[in-house]
């Protein structure tokens, strides 16, 4: 299992649940933590089932700007 953190620009407390749902929909995810105060999302996932790009792309495809 791998745990990685990336930043998401311009999202608010009300967006946290939506971003968590987006990330949990990616196959292989084990845990998600989203913090709007810091602008960060942390994802733990099975690297055999998903790639890091799968998570960042899912968030970007939902209209959020991903950094890192």
TrEMBL record:
InterPro entries: HMA_dom (IPR006121), HMA_dom_sf (IPR036163). It comes from the Bacteria. One of its GO terms (molecular function) is metal ion binding. Gene3D superfamilies: 3.30.70.100. Residues 1-67 form the HMA domain. Transmembrane segments: none annotated. This is Copper chaperone CopZ. The lineage of its organism: Bacteria, Bacillati, Bacillota, Bacilli, Bacillales.
């Amino acid at each position: 299992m791998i745990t990685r953190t990336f930043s998401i620009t311009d999202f608010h407390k009300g967006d946290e649940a939506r971003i968590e749902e987006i990330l949990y929909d990616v196959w292989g995810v084990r845990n998600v933590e989203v913090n709007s105060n810091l602008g960060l999302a942390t994802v733990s996932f099975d690297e055999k089932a998903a790639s890091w790009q799968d998570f960042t792309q899912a968030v970007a495809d939902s209209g959020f700007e991903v950094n890192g």
